Amino acid sequence: MTNKNEEKLKFSAEISKVLQLMIHSLYTNKDIFLRELVSNSSDACDKLRYAALTESSLMEGDSDLSITIEANKEQKTVTITDNGIGMSREELIANLGTIAKSGTQEFASKLTGDDKKDMPLIGQFGVGFYSSFMVADKVTVVSTKAGASESFIWESEGLGEFTVTSTEKTTRGTKITLYIKENADDYLDNFRIRHIVQTYSDHISFPIYLLDEDKNREQINTASALWMRSKNEVSEEKYTEFYHHVSHMMGSPWLTLHNKAEGKLEYTSLLFVPSSKPVDLFHPDRKSRVKLYVKRVFITEEHAELVPSYLRFLRGVVDSEDLPLNISRETLQQNPLITKIRDAVVKKFLSELKKKAESDENEYKNFWKNFGAVVKEGLCEAYSPREQILEACRFNSSNFDNDTLASLDSYISRMKEGQENIFYLTGENINSIRQSPQLEGFTSRGIEVLLLSDHVDDFWVNVVLDYKGKQFKSITRSDINLESIKSEKTDKPEEEKAEAPKENIEKLCERIKSILGNAVGEVRTTQKLGQSAVCLATKEGGMDFRLERFLIEQKQIAAAAAKILEINPKHPIIKHLAEKGNANIDDAVWLLFDQARILEGEEITDPAAFTRRLQSFVEKSLAA
Ligand code: ADP
Q1: Which of 15, 39, 42, 43 should be mutated for ligand 1, with most atoms under 8 A from CB?
Q2: Same domain, 213 and 238
């Protein structure tokens, strides 16, 4: 029988995809459907409590917010009822028929059809409601929005469409009925339900009641805000459950930080660092996802920016005792108390991070691999505690293999006598940086160079000038004087270290400059090189190659500045050219210059000429 009011609608493409996965799910832990529905009910109660702060009539008649679960063995149904905010007709359609979040398409395109890979994604994207189709072949949702005078029924078998019908007004909130599948009978058992709630949802701060056959109700969770309990009352399992609830992530957190601040600023924070990267880590919004509560009342997840964007991987809650309950979400970001809480949270977090790094470098490496690139964004921000962030930073280093990371403090402890700077080199990836000729003179002298390959590295090195009094310096700078640094390491016999006579070298530099003309800004000697004859360098105070290329791509600057060509006075080719000259000197110089450009990832201006020259050299060497 079709109802006049009934409206038949199709699920959006992404939801259909998610539903397919749910219906055919081989996912072993089907229990989580209940966790997801209870979690939604809890959010709905939070939302109502917040709305009632400014409009108390919304709670009228029923101000004890709670969640009730009932199983009916005869009808084979499980119902989850809450007296929270409820949903209007439009909300039922929008919330339970489409994914209205940004990044939806990207999310859907990441779904592979492989349960193992998809479930963590689905969880993080927050489509928990649909997990009910793992255990039910039909779901009805009856909902009455707080303050509204009508109620609606949403119904679906999870197969592409759903219906929405208006119905007689019911009490405020939402009642979800699951028609349990044949093979999922055990969810009709109260013992099982109690066990699941106690395992996954004990931390929910509203009471969860279980009804027996005679409709007697029994509260089955502790129902006090987990973060308000003292640390020794909370087991690791409870923390992990709560982490799943606030983060939508699976597994255990990498770090749990539970802290109560007293004194001038009074707040409690329970924050988690995930053990893997959340899917939206590099989403353009870069929003913080730490929830703000005021005296146990949920205020907002999105508007507060309780942690800065460079700590946006943090999940959890901050509950303030000082903020007024009637605070408006819109003005939160400018609220001086929020700024103070943010500063305190950052400070505390960074100092805990330091402790963690000191206690177990290996574990710390896992954190750094996931979030190091994000943390370093903080170095570019004007008001961040740069020194503390730099203390937390770890880098690949020319002294160690790819798997070993160095802190700046340890770098400083290894600096050579006469070494003033913290040397670094940036590039696309660690292995290609290791091949750079720029490094030769440093490694042969045992002078350590930090190898930086994250995109953000090109930026912060221009903003942060020093660490503990030692200036950062890119080894592509032309003014580095390696001779003034004392080093014990020499891996070459003396005679190979001889240079061509100074005069000849000076003349050669002039000659090279006249051959290359405006293609180079300057030609000079360097001690930086070992096996290589030449390399490119930038002026002191100039821009590094990668940053310059990035800014050109972004059309921020029009063209690259002319580079400095540095030559190695000990190299056989240079010595030959300096002492004996050569009829082919023009071609040789252009070849050397182009080769240096290729190594730096710069474009060569005339590939045809380059190829012609190379070919003629190969021909000559084969003929010789
Ligand atoms: P998520 O909870 O992560 O947003 P879901 O698919 O579980 O994703 O739920 C979608 C939306 O439906 C929720 O964001 C919420 O707006 C709404 N919703 C779900 N359950 C309820 C409920 N019990 N009461 C009110 N709104 C609800």
Answers
A1: 43
A2: no
Is the predicted pLDDT of residue 204 greater than 70, yes or no?
yes
Q: Are residues 206 and 66 in the same domain?
A: yes
Distance in Å, CA 245 to ligand 1 centroid: 13
Same domain, 475 and 537: no
- Whether residue 46 is predicted with pLDDT greater than 90 in this model: the reply is yes
For residue 385, tell me if it sits in a domain. no
Residue 402: domain span: 395-484
18 and 163 together in one domain: yes
Q: Is the pLDDT of residue 316 over 50?
A: yes
What tens digit of pLDDT does each residue of 528-576 get?
A: 898 999 999 998 878 888 888 888 888 888 888 889 999 999 999 999 9
Determine which residue's CA is closest to atom 10 belonging to ligand 1.
95
Q: Which atom number of ligand 1 is nearest to the Cα of residue 125?
A: 3
Higher pLDDT residue, 581 or 155?
Answer: 155
Structure letter (DSSP) for residue 496:
G
With a 6 A CB cut-off, is 82 part of the ligand 1 pocket? yes
- Closest C-alpha to 540, from 553, 556, 522: 522
- Residue 382 in domain: no
Distance 42 CA to ligand 1 centre (A): 10
| Of 325, 313, 22, the residue nearest 184 (C-alpha) | 22
CA distance 265 to 186: 49
Does 127 sit in the ligand 1 pocket, CB within 6 Å? yes
Decide whether any atom of ligand 1 lies within 6 Å of the 427 Cβ: no
Q: Residue 435 corresponds to which tokens in the numbers above?
A: 């091949």
Residue type, 600: E
Q: Which of 21, 46, 127, 129 maximizes ligand 1 atoms within 8 Å of its Cβ, making it the mutation to test the pocket?
A: 129
- Nearest Cα neighbor of 84 from 130, 136, 131, 38 is 38
**Could you say which of 320, 350, 365 is where a domain stops?**
365
Q: What is the pLDDT of residue 15?
A: 83
Would you place residue 1 in the very low, low, confident or very high pLDDT band (cuts 50, 70, 90)? very low
Q: Which atom of ligand 1 is nearest to the CA of 47?
A: 25
Residue 491: pLDDT band (50, 70, 90) is low
Residues 6+ apart with CB under 8 A from 567: 505, 508, 509, 512, 523, 524, 525, 526, 533, 534, 574
Measured in Å, residue 86 CA sits from the centre of ligand 1 at 10
Mean pLDDT (the chain, rounded): 90
In a domain, 386, yes or no: no
Residues 6+ apart with CB under 8 A from 504: 578, 579
**Is residue 258 in a domain?**
yes
Distance (angstroms) between ligand 1 centre and the Cα of 46 equals 12
**246 C-alpha vs ligand 1 centroid, how far in Å?**
14
Which CATH number covers residue 260?
Answer: 3.30.230.80
